[in-house]
Design brief:
Layout (H helix, E strand, L loop, with lengths): L1 H9 L3 H6 L3 E4 L4 E8 L8 H25 L2 E2 L5 H7 L1 H12 L3 E6 L5 E8 L5 H4 L2 E2 L25 E11 L5 H24 L9 H10 L5 E12 L2 E11 H8 L3 H6 L5 E8 L22 H12 L8 H11 L8 H11 L3 E14 L8 E13 L5 E13 L2 H34 L1 E8 L4 H14 L3 E10 L2 E8 L3 H10 L5 E8 L3 E8 L1
Parallel strand pairs: 10-11, 14-18
Antiparallel strand pairs: 1-2, 2-5, 3-6, 4-5, 7-9, 8-9, 11-12, 12-13, 14-16, 15-16, 17-18
Helix pairs in contact: 3-5, 4-5, 5-7, 7-8, 8-14, 11-14, 12-13
Length: 531
């Protein structure tokens, strides 16, 4: 039995052994240390591609392990760091920002494409609320003389620019080293901005939604790099590695970390229109001006006007005028508070709107309010609506909210409740749309691709594979259907539908040539040719 236990112990894999020591604090050096491992994607076209994905996964795991280790530490007042971060969301985001900016100090590559790496973060570089008040456990080695020093990620800031050195890498696909070098440079610039942004978050005034803003910043990283020079480049197997020294604009980075402008710009400032039917007290059903109901003479644009004003404040620059929206909606006809995909496309064509907010607000009586006086009455407005893409009829977000009001007469009470509900609705809708667009930008846009003149089912499979493996920015491809020479694909891309269309026309995909016939914000139509 003893021999069996000894053999079993020796058979434990290195990965399992490392998992027991995923993170620790070196109190003598005052450094937070963590390890991370990433498994290779078995469906990757090559070991090089698998390794890149595994390395990113390993870094994410190391950062997560570092955070969990830090949460277990104790502060001088006896409170755990985990409890402090749980009660202070802004501080938690600061810590996450610092961890996102770290670089691996040691990396090990496995033969199957897997990766393990180590990171270190000096405690004195953490937010002072934590770094300056950590309490070492009894028996921990005394810290070395002076605070721990680690190589600075870049030079001193000068004239609003931060000099930073970063390394990027990209796998060579189909022998195209030029394309891989370009991607490696882009990756290096992204890493440079990521390192600077991780530090800058500690000085930003609004950090609650930093993660969302950080993702959008990283997807537009080259916009913050004023200049760069290549320090070193070379090949590691089938992977191009490029090290750059970049000059990153601190002013522009701070500005965009604090606003929604970059996200809107990244989505091309979508043109938006609003259609909200209203039913105030005394009305039998929700009515909108586009319905042309002559029985209703009250102002039916209370909710629309409030929503439009709040959208402008939320960063929506291109809005369809309310009267034009109602006129065009009336010309389409056949709907009240919901749209079919065909109606959405028709309205989009007539108004150039890419997003439509459509719904209804209904006011109901709640009774007298004796505390305010004998004639006061209360009411409640319930507003429910959805944001719809005009090109494919897809739903971006849905929101429902209720708000109360009190006035001396029913009509005024209803108007006040509608205004409050419209303001609250817009706040929630902007947040939800922002989250969806941020996912599109950071995790990939969902683009519906319709492929015409596909010769056979085999040709459909070959084109799908070529699209997934050979086109820059394509993260995944799923076939929705194939019938009568037409193929429907759901493609996830980093970038826009227009960028995907440009990539498709710019290259030959295996035996296929591609002609783009139509592009919208979320769809691309193409025709195939074969050689």
């Amino acid at each position: 039995m003893l021999r069996f236990l000894l053999c079993a112990a020796l058979a434990i894999s290195p990965a399992m052994a490392r998992a027991d020591a995923s993170g620790e604090i070196d109190w003598q050096r005052r450094v937070l240390k963590a390890k991370g491992e990433g498994a290779p994607d078995l469906n990757a076209p090559s070991i090089a591609v698998a390794r890149l994905g595994a390395e990113r996964a390993a870094m994410a795991t190391a950062q997560r392990n570092a955070l969990e280790t830090l949460k277990g530490a104790t502060l001088e007042d006896g409170l755990s760091v985990g409890t402090l971060l749980q009660n202070d969301n802004a501080l938690r985001v600061k810590v996450q920002g610092k961890l996102r900016g770290v670089k691996a100090i040691k990396t090990h590559y496995f033969s199957d494409g897997g990766v393990s790496l180590d990171i270190e973060v000096p405690l004195d570089q953490l937010p002072p609320e934590i770094g300056q008040h950590l309490k070492a456990p009894k028996g921990a080695a005394a810290p070395a003389q002076g605070p721990a020093q680690s190589p600075a990620p870049g030079g001193e800031a000068k004239d609003g620019l931060q000099s930073i050195e970063a390394t990027g890498q990209a796998a060579v696909l189909n022998g195209d080293k030029g394309a891989a070098r370009e991607k490696a440079i882009d990756d290096a610039l992204r890493q440079a901005v990521k390192m600077v942004a991780g530090a800058q978050v500690q000085s930003t005034t609004e950090v609650h939604d930093f993660q969302t803003k950080m993702d959008t910043v990283l997807e537009h990283s080259t916009g913050y790099v004023k200049s760069y020079q290549i320090v070193k480049e070379g090949m590691d197997g089938e992977v191009v590695q490029v090290t750059v020294r970049a000059q990153v604009s601190l002013a522009a980075l701070d500005k965009d970390l604090e606003g929604m402008g970059l996200l809107m710009a990244r989505k091309g400032f979508p043109r938006t229109m609003v259609l909200i039917a209203e039913q105030n007290i005394g009305m039998t059903a929700p009515v909108g001006p586009w319905m042309k109901n002559e029985q209703v003479s009250a102002d039916l644009r209370i909710a629309e006007n409030v929503v439009l004003d709040e959208l402008r404040k939320g960063g929506f620059r291109q809005l369809v005028d309310a009267e034009i929206a109602d006129q065009k909606a009336a010309s389409v006809g056949g709907f009240t508070t919901a749209l079919t995909a065909a109606q959405a496309r028709r309205l989009g064509t007539l108004t150039q709107a890419e997003v439509i907010l459509i719904g209804q607000v209904i006011v109901s009586q709640r009774g007298a309010v004796a505390a305010l006086g004998p004639d006061w009455r209360s009411c409640s407005a319930n507003l429910s609506a959805r944001a719809v893409n005009t090109d494919d009829g897809g739903i971006l977000a849905t929101v429902e909210t209720s708000q109360n009001a009190a006035q001396l007469d029913d009509l005024t009470c209803g108007k006040e409740a509608i205004k409050k509900a419209a303001k609250k609705f817009t706040e929630q809708m902007v947040q939800k749309i922002g989250e969806r667009w941020s996912q599109d930008v950071s995790g990939g846009n969902a683009v519906h691709v319709t492929v015409h003149k596909v010769g056979s089912l085999k040709a459909a499979g070959d084109f799908r594979g070529a699209l997934a493996q050979q086109v820059r920015g394509v993260k995944s491809v799923a076939q929705r259907s194939y019938a009568s020479g037409t193929q429907e694909l759901d493609v996830t891309v980093t970038g826009s539908a227009e960028q995907l269309a440009e990539e498709l026309e710019a290259r030959k995909l295996g035996r296929f040539s591609v002609k783009v016939t139509a592009v919208t914000a979320n769809t691309v139509d193409v025709e195939l040719g074969q050689e």
